[in-house]
Amino acid sequence: MKEKSLKRNNYIFFTLIILAIIVILICQSAGIEQNNQYLEDYKIYRSYQQLINQEKYQEAEKYLNHILPRYQDNYLVQWDRGKILLGEKKYKEAENALRLAREIRPVLVLRPEYLYNTAETYFFLKDINKAKQYLNECLKYEDSTYTTKARELMQQIEALGEVK
Fold first, then answer.
1. C-alpha to C-alpha distance for 99 and 86, rounded to whole angstroms
2. Which of 11, 53, 54, 124 is in the most buried spot, having the most CB atoms within 10 Å?
3. Burial status of residue 77 (CB atoms within 10 A of its CB: 0-12, 13-18, 19 or more)
4. Rounded to 5 degrees, what angle do the CA atoms 42, 46, 48 make?
5. SS3 assignment, position 57
6. Assign residue 99 a region: left if phi > 0, alpha if psi is -120 to 50, beta otherwise?
């Protein structure tokens, strides 16, 4: 009787070990697949980043649209979408994408590039008060490349005010 109980316990133990190994293999396979997808998405991300830097916005948008469905809630993807739409002169859509990026990641308002992108969008939407608000925030960051751009845009706004 004791021997049967011992055999049954061994059978249960080995069955559990085999099940654990199967679960580990399945999880590993899923993890590898997920890693491959992330790697592919990262390559696409880097590609459209380079295209944005080269001001090839329509091409960049094609790449971004490949990953957008999987990363709707990613602030960087939404911010990049805003930059692309701004470059394509789709200002209302750019405003929406930039706003969504800020809602996802509120600390974006501490990034000079974001502040400048948003100010520029409002400038083209002819919402000068909001443009100035974002430009003034951007100008607080003296060491930024975007501070120079913000000064230039602010000068344009002030020149427009003098013309009126």
1. 13
2. 124
3. buried
4. 115
5. helix
6. alpha
